[in-house]
Amino acid sequence: MLVDGRQVYKWERKAVEKIVVNVAIRSKDILERMAREHPDTIFALEEAKILYDPQEILWNLKKEVALTEDLKKELLRDLLDEARSFIGKAERALDEGDLESSLVCLRQGAVKLAELMFYRERGRRINYIHFWHEIRSLSSTEFQELLTEIQGFQLADRDWLAHMVKKLKVSLEKVSSMILVRE
Question: Residue 177: which domain range?
Answer without folding.
Answer: 156-183
